[in-house]
């Protein structure tokens, strides 16, 4: 099964994707992670992307789409979690077209529902491992040893530039204006599932698995 995870920034898409990868052996494509890895390697795309990401604005659709195409072509398989893509209706349409071309079906698009006040708290306390991308929260889910990544032991935990209050505001506004309409988009196509994204990670993961795999 191929799925799309979407929701406001801080809704937990990355955390839940990591669980789907480790527990269900799914493949994960996160457009945000791909852009960050280009920025880290200072590729031409990364140099262009930095300004967009730091300020919380979306990258142009054509660039994003060709990056996704490339990532999908490298996977050659079923069981893909798309995290952070599509992010607007034009990208969703482009994904449908690409899907028809390469035989890639999105079976479900899962919306993570989290109130805005909770999102701001999550994002402003978030620390990310620069080496492996693992995500922590300074209060809710700190690493076992302060400043050290549980997963890869790197000491390079950092706060993303776009987790500043100013960028958070921009990202939430962009989410409401451009990404939230995906709910109607996938609802109209009979593929929308919604999950309450509040509460402990494991509880959210149980809810996610139920909407994905439990027969009604
Ligand atoms: P994320 O890690 O999903 O929060 O994404 C971080 C940033 O990467 C976003 O704020 C955008 O600047 C960029 N980005 C990620 N996915 C997309 C997308 N599908 N379209 C355009 N920009 C994106």
Summarize the structure.
By secondary structure, the chain is of the alpha/beta class. The chain has nine helices and eight strands.
* Number of DSSP E strands: 8
Hey, roughly how much beta strand do the residues contain? 5-15%
Largest sheet: 5 strands, parallel
- What is the chain-wise order of helices and strands? EHEHHHEHEHEEEHHEH
How far do the termini sit from each other? 17 Å
Q: How many helical elements?
A: 9
Q: Note the overall shape.
A: globular
Average pLDDT: 95
Uncertain stretches of 5 or more adjacent residues: none
For the biggest β-sheet, the strand order reads: 2-3-1-4-8
Structure class? alpha/beta
Describe this protein's structure:
With 216 residues, the chain is of the alpha/beta class. Helix content is 50%, strand content 15%. The strands form 2 sheets. Strands 2-3-1-4-8 form a 5-stranded parallel beta sheet, with helices on both faces. The chain has a 3-stranded antiparallel beta sheet with strand order 6-5-7. Strand 5 and strand 6 form a beta hairpin. Helix 1 crosses helix 9. The chain is globular. The two termini are 17 Å apart. The mean pLDDT is 95. The site of adenosine monophosphate has 17 residues, from helix 2 and helix 3. Adenosine monophosphate binds next to helix 2 and helix 3.
């Amino acid at each position: 099964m191929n799925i799309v995870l979407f929701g406001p920034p801080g809704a937990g898409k990355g955390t839940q994707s990591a669980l789907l990868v480790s527990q269900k052996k799914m493949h994960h494509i996160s457009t945000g992670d791909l852009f960050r890895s280009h920025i880290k390697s200072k590729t031409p795309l990364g140099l262009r992307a930095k300004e967009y990401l730091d300020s919380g604005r979306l990258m142009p659709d054509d660039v994003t789409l060709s990056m996704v195409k490339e990532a999908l072509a490298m996977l050659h398989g079923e069981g893909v979690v798309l995290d952070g893509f599509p992010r607007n209706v034009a990208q969703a349409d482009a994904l449908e077209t690409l899907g028809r071309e390469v035989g890639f079906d999105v079976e479900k698009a899962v919306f993570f529902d989290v109130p805005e006040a909770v999102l701001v708290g999550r994002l402003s306390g978030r620390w990310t491992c620069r080496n492996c991308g693992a995500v922590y929260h300074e209060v809710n889910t700190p690493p076992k040893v302060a400043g050290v990544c549980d997963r890869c032991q790197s000491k390079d935990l950092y706060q993303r530039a776009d987790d500043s209050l100013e960028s958070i505001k921009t990202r939430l506004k962009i989410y409401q204006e451009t990404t939230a309409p995906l709910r109607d988009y996938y609802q109209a196509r009979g593929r929308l599932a919604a999950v309450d994204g509040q509460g402990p990670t494991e509880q959210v993961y149980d809810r996610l698995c139920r909407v994905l795999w439990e027969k009604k």
